Amino acid sequence: TAAEKEQGAWAEGMIAIQSSGLGGIMQMQNKQWFPKRFQEVVNRLKNDFKFVQLGSASDPPLTDVIDLRGKTNIRETAAVFAKCCLYIGNVGFLMHLARATECPAVIIFGGREAPWQSGYSCNINLYSAVPCAPCWLWNTCDHERVCMKNISAHDVVCAVERIIDRARNLLEVDRFTL
Fold first, then answer.
1. N-terminal to C-terminal alpha carbon distance within the chain
2. Residue 81 CB: number of other CB atoms within 10 A?
3. Burial of 159 (0-12, 13-18, 19+ CB in 10 A)
4. What is the dihedral of CA 165, 12, 157, 27, to 10 degrees?
5. Is the dihedral of CA 41, 42, 45, 49 positive or negative?
6. Each residue of 4-13: pLDDT tens digit?
7. What is the pLDDT of residues 27-60, one digit of tens each?
8. Burial, 2: exposed, middle or buried (Cβ in 10 Å; 0-12, 13-18, 19+)?
9. Per residue in 17-46, is it b (16+ CB within 10 Å) or e — as a string?
10. Pairing of strands 15-17, 51-53
């Protein structure tokens, strides 16, 4: 609602970030980037942007962020997204919630699944097309999660800079045609 969106007004222009999705019901290690790399992203951008960390209370904490892990419900998180300039996170529910609220996003896919399978073209989707990808495996990997290791903090920072250069408008809608 308009009133709920107004409650998120304090997040205007901030970057929302989630360091893990392992606090969810269906935990998938192969969807997880590295908390240390999320922190690197914050460290590189904190002089230009304020960050708000969303997600589960059990997600690894980041420094130099407003820590709302475990402190918001779905609608409150949506209100924050509605005002943030972008979202950074892994493939998962918050990726879809950001899209539903017209919040542009940098999504770290790695290689478990491909952006064309579950992502949105309006986001910057970081995918590592290693020979075993997409594998759709939940927690096992015979390749030491090289698909995630291939995505650097620098890659994410560059993606953030590309999104910031765009005007914040309604996001492009993906259409399926037969």
1. 35
2. 26
3. buried
4. -130
5. positive
6. 989 999 999 9
7. 899 999 999 999 999 999 999 999 999 999 999 9
8. exposed
9. bbbbbbbbeeebbbbbbbeebbbbbbeebe
10. parallel
